[in-house]
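Every protein is a chain of amino acids, and every chain bends into a shape of its own. The fold becomes a row of whole numbers, each drawn from a learned catalogue of backbone shapes. The protein below has been through that process, and both of its lines are reproduced in full.
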Amino acid sequence: MAALIDRFTKAKRIVIKIGSALLVNEKTGMLRRDWLTALAEDIQELRSNGQEVLIVSSGSIAIGRRILGLKKGRLKLEESQAAAATGQIHLAHAYQEILGDHDLKIAQILLTLGDTEERRKYLNARSTLSTLLNLGVIPVINENDTVATSEIRYGDNDRLGARVAQMMGADCLILLSDIDGLYTADPSKDPNAEFIAKIPELTEKIMAMGGGVQTAFGSGGMITKLQAAEIAVSAGCNMLITSGKVNNPLSKIKTGESRFSCFLAKDTPRNARKKWIAGSLGSQGALIIDSGAEKALQKGKSLLPAGVSAIQGEFERGDLVTLINSQGKELGHGLTAYSSKDAELIIGQKSSEIVSILGYAGRDEMIHRDELALK
């Protein structure tokens, strides 16, 4: 068990997904402030240990429906969107107030799954989240339910949490749930259901263990958690499912007071991302680089505009391009921070001159080292 706990305690970047059933009292529709206050203590401890934290939080619809006096049971899409719009502002204020009392700065980010899957939106979201983390801020992310359609109907914050972990290269994703982990069957229906602590591989047998929705507010169930695990572990991110019904659930993982199911990643986030870049996308163009840039890349540096001597093809920001040296040898691939149109204007120039040439402050790098996959 200690080795599994290390997957959490030694993680540099952690995504915590919080379900509606934990944040909101099912009977009253009120925010469980005491629970969130205890969680803030846990997060403060993680931050004091130098760990970066992102929160993916459900709860806006559950809070908003009480404020609007909407009936119990399934809501129409437009009612869900109205509840989300109303509840989100209250939810964000609660996070700001309660985490602020623990000297934690937060920022609100609203995403849809499309923002994590469409490459240009993905790059913008990733850049914003990276900047917030560099500034010591905790992003509080929720699904943009006011514009989402199918996401609201099916409830996808488990998968959204996994997409955020994938996008941000997180080491660990924690799903705080109303169940303490994965069982061979639904433990509320089968007294012989066995708890599974360690999942080294997502086999067909494991995937078949997904169950249905268990709460009035929740819209996921175990099947969405297993789908989240598929996304997370393929991105080199370990995933834990544990009960959030107790106060200080993260601290209780460390002390061994709370059990959990751990889905093990076989690679690091960095290596998994580079493999994805190398093998999952088609090249849209090429950058010809000089010998100085080639040496810098071999040392793990980013590719700067000054090191690019020519461009081939037409591409947009976020597209995959091939890197070729002055002798015509293919060196690898990377995701470009500039379109071919803008790149033509800044190649061979210093990064400090980008603003004056393009009229806007773009990235200093043509391709950041984290977006490179060399041969």
About this structure: The longest helix spans residues 77-100. DSSP finds 16 helices and 15 strands in the chain.
